[in-house]
TrEMBL record:
GO terms for cellular component: plasma membrane. The chain crosses the membrane at residues 21-40. InterPro entries: ExbD (IPR003400). The lineage of its organism: Bacteria, Bacillati, Cyanobacteriota, Cyanophyceae, Leptolyngbyales. It comes from Leptolyngbya sp. NK1-12. This is Biopolymer transporter ExbD.
Length: 135
């Protein structure tokens, strides 16, 4: 009996790449689909103004400052005034400047009640164009 001699190393093992490529293609497809869904941007349609028509520049409204110092004195545009004259001055300022604004700057140490009372009297004359400065 003769035995065949087997040659070692003559048979090269083969790796079947087709299943591995199939898996890689599925993973790549998954990442492409996920990245496309994450990058979709939803927008709002905005109609931009054309450059043909220049926008008119509105002048800034004039601001009158009413100061209430720690001694309780009232200053309207750096001039001392009384409470009764203040309402007349605010009314005259707002009539002269239709887009004007009156700002009350009160000292920090004043009682809040005094500041609110003066602000209420000014708002009775000027309405929404009277405000309180916070700094």
């Amino acid at each position: 009996m003769r035995f065949k001699r087997q040659r070692r190393g003559s048979d090269i093992p083969t790796v079947n790449l087709v299943p591995m490529l199939d898996v890689l293609m599925v993973v790549l497809t998954f990442f492409i689909i996920v990245s496309m869904t994450l990058t979709l941007q939803q927008g709002v349609e905005v109609q931009l103004p054309s450059q043909d028509t220049p926008t008119p520049v509105e002048p800034e409204p004039k601001i009158a400052i009413v100061e209430l110092n720690p001694e309780g004195e009232i200053l309207f545009d750096d001039q001392p005034t009384e409470k009764t004259a203040l309402t007349a001055a605010v009314k005259a300022f707002l009539e002269e400047n239709p887009k004007g604004i009156v700002v009350l700057q009160a000292a920090e140490k004043l009682p809040y009640e005094q500041v609110v009372t003066l602000l209420g009297e000014m708002k009775a004359v000027g309405g929404e164009r009277v405000s309180l400065a916070i700094e």
